[in-house]
């Protein structure tokens, strides 16, 4: 049966479409502007004012010069190490903690859950964290200082706990009858059934590690250990493009440095954007499982 739409309903839908299109434009245009600017001819872009709807000419000199930065490739390597190892540590520890908090009739479960949730609202602050990482654990100027202090995110832990709690208890009971232990149940039964939630956790932790720069600015001293985002911050805020504009005539250095900044933003952003399509089919389902308690 076809439901006839009233004029008010049609007006409402048209307004919704207009608002959604406006939000899409507002969200996507900054990225589109950066892409167009990075491929523009530097001199033409420097003289341009206002919005940008196409590349001003076409030139890849910004990308060619970007990869000459002495810290860019090492920053990529450091960030990949932190992302890959960090996500593995995050998923392992978060899964174990979530499994403990999601099981029924576990000794001291409620008090432990209370203290874990307490950390979402109150923390020791930056100075105690800095002293703990640098003096107690001696992790200063180590990439592990970007992984271990943030091994478990409490918010993500609560999402995963709810996701694991949705796995039927009867499966766990059957596995116990067959002689399975806790780790066997967790890694061979519970986690495979909660893959949408795990995929969301991988995305959340991966984006966090990829975009993280503040902890690196606290704990990392050697430039060759800088993660990519700290290198990017140094280039953009300190205007450190002199090392990449060598071989360019003095009149064009300022123009090249402008398009160079946009090229570096694209280089630092595209890899993490490419991860999302592989996790998209799990994303909505995983968020809903973790957000609604059954």
Strand content: under 5%
Structural classification: mainly alpha
- Tell me the Rg in angstroms: 25 Å
CATH architecture field of the largest domain: Orthogonal Bundle
Low-confidence stretches: 290-294
Average of pLDDT: 82
CATH topology assignment of the largest domain: MetI-like fold
How many helices does DSSP assign?
Answer: 13
Q: Specify the helix fraction band.
A: over 70%
Helix-strand sequence: HHHHHHHHHHHHH
Count of strand segments? 0
CATH superfamily of the largest domain: MetI-like
Through-space gap between termini? 34 Å
Q: What is the total domain count?
A: 2
| CATH class identity of the largest domain | Mainly Alpha
Oligomer: single chain
Reported for the largest beta sheet, the result is: none
| Shape verdict | globular
Domain ABC transmembrane type-1: 76-273
Pfam families: BPD_transp_1
Protein name: Carbohydrate ABC transporter permease
Keywords: Cell membrane, Membrane, Transmembrane, Transmembrane helix, Transport
Description of the molecule:
The structure is a single chain. By secondary structure, the protein is mostly helical. It has two domains: 7-68 and 241-291, no CATH class; 72-224, MetI-like (MetI-like fold, Orthogonal Bundle), CATH 1.10.3720. Helices cover 71% and strands 0% of the residues. It has 13 helices and no strands. The protein has helices spanning 7-38, 42-47, 61-66, 72-102, 109-121, 126-136, 154-165, 169-177, 182-193, 195-211, 214-219, 228-238, 250-291. Helix 4 runs antiparallel to helix 10 (195-211) and helix 7 runs antiparallel to helix 10. The longest helix has 42 residues, at 250-291. The protein is globular, with a radius of gyration of 25 Å. The two termini are 34 Å apart.
